[in-house]
Amino acid sequence: MNSAEIDAVYTELAESIARVGEDRTHLFLATLALDLLSEQADAGTALEHIAKAERLAKI
User: What confidence score (pLDDT) does residue 1 get?
Assistant: First the structure.
């Protein structure tokens, strides 16, 4: 994606989070993550992405 596409995706993500509401944000993000992870070639790659996200969340 180029910068404009990343900006458009970020904007839609932020607006979607606002539409589902704070009390359902965790469910929305978990559903989105599972959908994206299911596109990976194998479970090992998906698990690597999960581990990377966990590491980044602790920074």
Answer: 94
> How many whole angstroms separate alpha carbon 30 and alpha carbon 41?
19
Inter-CA distances, 26 with 2, 32, 33, Å: 28, 10, 10
Compute CA distances 16 → 9, 29, 32, whole Å. Answer: 10, 10, 11
Residues 31 and 20: beta-carbon distance below 8 Å: no
CB 24 within 8 A of CB 12: no
Query: The whole model's pTM is what?
Result: 0.81
- The pLDDT tens digits of the residues spanning 15-53 come to 999 999 999 999 999 999 999 999 999 999 999 999 999
Using the 8-state DSSP alphabet, how is residue 15 labeled? H
